[in-house]
Design goal:
By secondary structure, the chain is of the alpha/beta class. It is about 40% helix and about 15% strand. β1, α1 and β2 form a beta-alpha-beta unit.
């Protein structure tokens, strides 16, 4: 059984593929830069070089592939058109190619940013998305197109909506200061460690009977802006406590479905558990 991973040299992919290789031998990765894939090739991954939008690439990349983990995405540092082309259009293209190739399972990495704000409670998977911004909008539209392919043509789809990913040397936690410095100190951010992202992806690949389902993936203890500043060794701005907090539930999700249907139990239920284990 061969699994294709897109976005294999990105922050999630570069940490997930080694975990996948520990569980199976036949792993193929689709990358744009072969130099960045040398470590994965050295561990046994079959490397295909090319861009998702490259004509003629997908049939070659999908030959003899049984399952896909689609991690490739454009977030920061690209224009709106580029982000939409990769996050929405390229995702739909690889899903249609997967159906043609007879791929049985398609795991899609999405984001809890698709929910937006205004629910006065943690977000549930069946809530209607209300994304704000090109990145979450393009991810939400990709989800809709994938769901149509599942409903109309039988795509073996599983969608994972990840919280703010961190750990294992990922600089994301420090990058959270871009927002935390401007937030009221009691505004919270829900996190998920790379180890738990990997666990969720593996379980989504293996679990039977969940085609067409969407799952929130996050840890058990959202952290406040105050805590993010302290974790990064920064002082709390003097005026922070006077800043209004319009929606205390924005970005917070309910993870009961992932626990019940995928059997997810956090390896690192909080950022403090990861810190104490030396896993930041």
């Amino acid at each position: 059984m061969t699994t294709l991973v897109t976005g294999a040299t990105g922050r999630i992919g570069s940490r997930f593929v080694p975990r996948l290789l520990e569980h199976q031998e036949d792993v193929r990765v689709l990358v744009r830069d072969p130099d960045k894939a040398e470590r994965l090739a050295g561990r046994g991954a079959d490397v295909i070089v090319g861009d998702l939008r490259e004509e003629g690439l997908l049939p070659r990349a999908l030959a003899r592939v049984n399952r896909i983990v689609h991690l490739a995405a454009a977030f920061r540092g690209v224009g709106d058109e580029e982000a939409t082309a990769i996050n929405r259009d390229a995702t739909a293209s690889i899903a249609r190619a997967a159906l043609t190739a007879g791929v049985s399972r398609f795991v899609y990495a999405s984001t809890n940013l698709v929910y937006g704000s205004g629910r006065d409670r943690p977000a549930l998977e069946d809530d209607e998305p209300a994304p704000a911004g090109v990145y979450p909008e393009s991810k939400a539209e990709a989800e809709r197109q994938l769901q149509r392919l599942h409903e109309d043509e039988g795509l073996g789809l599983r969608i994972l909506r990840f919280a703010f990913v961190y750990g294992e040397g990922d600089p994301h936690l420090a990058e959270s200061l871009l927002w935390a410095r401007e937030w009221p100190p009691h505004k919270r951010l829900q996190l998920v460690h790379h180890a738990d992202v990997g666990q969720a992806l593996l379980r989504a690949l293996r679990t039977e009977g969940v085609d067409g389902e969407t799952f929130n993936v996050a840890d058990d203890a959202p952290v406040s802006a105050y805590e993010l500043l302290r974790l990064n060794g920064e002082p709390v701005p003097a005026d922070a406590s006077a800043r209004p907090l319009d929606d205390p539930w924005e970005g917070i999700v309910d993870t009961a479905k992932s626990r019940d249907l995928l059997g997810l139990r956090s390896i690192y239920p909080s950022v403090y558990a990861a810190r104490d284990a030396g896993a930041l």
